[in-house]
Specification:
The complex is a heterodimer of chains A (114) and B (114). Chain A is an all-beta fold and 114 residues long. Chain A contains no helices and 9 strands. In chain A, a hairpin with a 5-residue loop joins strand 6 and strand 7. Classes of the chains: A mainly beta (114), B mainly beta (114). At the A-B interface, strand 3, strand 4 and strand 8 of A face strand 4, strand 5, strand 9 and strand 10 of B.
Amino acid sequence: DAKTTQPNSMESNEEEPVHLPCNHSTISGTDYIHWYRQLPSQGPEYVIHGLTSNVNNRMASLAIAEDRKSSTLILHRATLRDAAVYYCILRDIILTGGGNKLTFGTGTQLKVEL
Amino acid sequence: DTAVSQTPKYLVTQMGNDKSIKCEQNLGHDTMYWYKQDSKKFLKIMFSYNNKELIINETVPNRFSPKSPDKAHLNLHINSLELGDSAVYFCASTTGVGGANVLTFGAGSRLTVL
């Protein structure tokens, strides 16, 4: 799997938008960009994923750069419940017998303050 | 309804003992995983099964033996427990092996070896 780079931590105020960046300069044309998050004492939770176009769902938006070498997860209005570690992960659309494993990096610890 | 359930949630045991962690999913998925999260919070894949067949085995000691009696269950048995086995173990599931498919994780099983 291609490597991603994320800031170790970010801070935000409640009710403010949050932009979590991810660099993936070695991304291949067949890599999906996935975002998961892990709330304290819980298992990882799927947030959003995309290939080339920007994506929106009820949790967040994913903005993908035109060259696909970076992406940004956008939380439109952060709440205290959004405090978590956010992981940006690349997964190849064409998979071999190794299956579709998720390879987690260190992620970004998001702190949300009142 | 719990989608991916793991038991037990907490497990405290002595070195040298043998223990098992069970995982069940009611999502109709055909691929299941075990991940290990160590004290530094790094999440690492251990095993993956697709339709009861082992497809990923990530350099895990032989003391760890996964068993999948059917595609809704993936259990993890650990022999001769060591201090370094202390971690949180997460079970996950998905359908198929495509790169766009998302994983659903359980809440985790915290194993403490004394």
